[in-house]
Amino acid sequence: MVSSDSMACNETVASRIDSLISTGVTIHGGSAAFAYGCSQIDYQNLEHRVEDAVELLHSMGVKPGNRIAIVGENCLAYCIFLFAVSRIGAWTVAVNARMSPRELELVLSDASPHMVIFLSGDSPSASDHGTRLGARAVKSAGPTDFKLSIVTGMMAENPETHDENVALVIYTSGSTGSPKGVLVTHASLLNLAEVVATSRDISPDDVVYGLGSYAHISGLGQLLGALRGGATTFLPGKFTPENLLADIASQRITVLSSAPALFSKVVSYCKERDLSLRGTSLRWINWGGAPMTQSLRDEVEDLFGLPLYTFYGLSEFQPIAYTNSQFYRRDCALGFPSRGVEVEVRSGAGERAPQGEPGELWVRGKSLSPGYFGKSTLLPDADGWFNTGDVVTQATDGALVMVGRTKEIIIRSGFNVYPSEVEQILLDHENVTSAAVLGVSRDNNEDVIACVVVSERLPDEDKYRAFLRDRLSPYKIPSRIVFLGEMPLTSSGKLDRAALRRIVQLRLDPIDVTHN
Questions:
Q1: What is the rounded average pLDDT of the residues 23-37?
Q2: Which of these, 56, 143, 302, 334, could form a disulfide with 400 (CB 3.0-4.6 Å)?
Q3: Which of 315, 314, 376, 364 is nearest to 340 (CA)?
Q4: Which of 412, 404, 399 is nearest to 442 (CA)?
């Protein structure tokens, strides 16, 4: 780390993420880089817009080494300012505008940015956040009229540190309520772009569906991979199954990446209407971001008539593993280790786990984050290995298979219960549309509590318990099954376990709901 005052303009850093735009101009010039609504913008004009944004940021005093928070949703302006901040040599603090006010304030308090940009013209949520925080509207002097507002003066008095290799800070949702800002380097993002583009054979003929949030690493991977391959990224509006089907037809979408929860909604929507998505323009579908069940996976492949691939990684290390046409499995494996990534499955004692036995997944490679913003925590051990916190097995062919998360293991009467195993069995029930399992402390032991969303109006808990008895060992059977109308989700669309625990605490008899 060096003081930003002593830094040069970063012009010597040749390989930043904005280089994907300038390279795209040279190779793909007049081809469409983005499509949105009824409009398109080609690589050449995208470059001009990025330069306009650079000029605007310079006029507002942005310098190399500054931290610039961008609050918005997936839109052209978000992409433009992401690359403009990179070109200046500053860091982007990536923020999803769908965060709650509390979540946003926690992130901004930790990130201590020099400036917060609210993309008010493209996101009502960003506009609301900006109004609440007293942002002032900014008028662009250049040819591009950016509709945005800014807040300055939030930077803490602590001395500024800066690593010129870092591109952005991505905040993990976590379960404790204290967000951690993962430092992500230009090199790791460019490697991610390369792996996404090559593993999916992305080309200028492709139209990639820009569904995943660009404030999160999985969505960024889709964005950068599309640019690396010279494809067009379509920026959709609000996700609904109906909108997705319309976009596939009108935009000729070829590549779709999604979390299992959204695939589940599409499957249910099409089942109700007896629709098939076979024979559309799509040629590639993949899942990531959360565990997948075998039943849902089979339904997705049947609906689309395509193999369903996977892509696995963390904000701290991306990518770790994937499947594609060369490396394919029909189960819910996380995939095969990516090139240049070393993996070890270790037992609780730190030794290599026997073949096929579950253990913690440790990874090593150049894409590991240098750390968390403002924290002295070093991610790797002395030999460069990082504990992902995921419990996996490794199959004989080398594929990684998820078992659960280390922190989510429930120890009941001395036996380990992996929530994901119980969840997957619950999801095999024809009436269960969503499931989550928590461990709660009581009487020096842990109870297994299942939370489910079901399709029937008056569910009978005993019937669901009987369903589980035929499929699970007695110690894995939930002590209680809590029926919910819907699962609480974070701004990134993942299960909000902290919120779920609060719901459970209100619904059950007084017990200690503090673990997991």
A1: 94
A2: 334
A3: 364
A4: 412
Residue 158 resides in a domain: yes
Beta bridge partners of 445: 442
pTM of the model: 0.82
| DSSP code, position 148 | E
Cα–Cα distance for residue pair 272/290, rounded to 1 Å = 25
Tell me whether residue 78 is in a domain: yes
Contacts of 185 (CB under 8 A, 6+ apart): 163, 165, 166, 167, 369, 370
Residue 430, domain extent: 409-507
Name 41's Cβ contacts closer than 8 Å, sequence gap at least 6.
32, 33, 34, 49, 76
Confidence of residue 2 (pLDDT cuts 50, 70, 90): very low
Is the model more confident about 57 or about 446? 57
Whats the size of the chain, residue-wise? 516
8 A C-beta contact, residue 359 and residue 321 = no
CA angle 217, 322, 293 (to 5 degrees): 90
For 219-237, what is the mean pLDDT? Answer: 97
Give domain status of residue 284, yes or no. Answer: no
Q: Is 91 helix (H, G, I), strand (E, B) or coil?
A: strand
Q: Are strands 91-96 and 166-172 parallel, antiparallel or unpaired?
A: parallel
CATH code: domain of residue 140: 3.40.50.980
Indicate the residue among 139, 158, 187 that finishes a domain.
Answer: 187
Question: Hey, what are 381's tokens?
Answer: 């051990």
Percent of the chain beyond pLDDT 70? 91
Task: Give the CATH number of the domain where residue 445 resides.
Answer: 3.30.300.30
CB atoms within 10 A of CB 211: 22
pLDDT score for 157: 52
Could you report the per-residue pLDDT of 285-321, keeping only the tens digit for each?
A: 999 987 788 888 999 999 999 999 999 999 999 999 9
Cβ atoms 118, 126 nearer than 8 A? yes
> For residues 477 and 469, is the Cβ–Cβ distance under 8 A?
yes
Count Cα atoms within 13 angstroms, Cβ side, for 379: 25
**Is residue 247 domain-resident?**
no
Residue 103 burial (CB count, 10 A):
18
Secondary structure class of 46 (helix, strand, coil): helix
Q: For residues 223 and 212, what is the distance between their CA atoms, to the nearest angstrom?
A: 9
* CA pair distance 435, 453, nearest whole angstrom: 6
pLDDT tens-digit series, residues 442-475: 766 788 999 999 998 899 999 999 999 888 888 8
With left for phi above 0 and alpha for psi between -120 and 50, is residue 342 left, alpha or beta?
beta
Q: Is the pLDDT of residue 6 over 50?
A: no
The alpha helices in 374-486, defined as continuous H runs, are 419-427, 461-469
d(CA 66, CA 58): 11
Q: Which residues contact 443 (CB under 8 A, 6 or more apart)?
A: none
Q: Which amino acid is at 133?
A: L
Residue that finishes a domain, picked among 119, 152, 187 = 187
Residue type, 332: C
d(CA 210, CA 199): 18
Q: Please state the separation of Cα 394 from the chain's center in Å.
A: 24
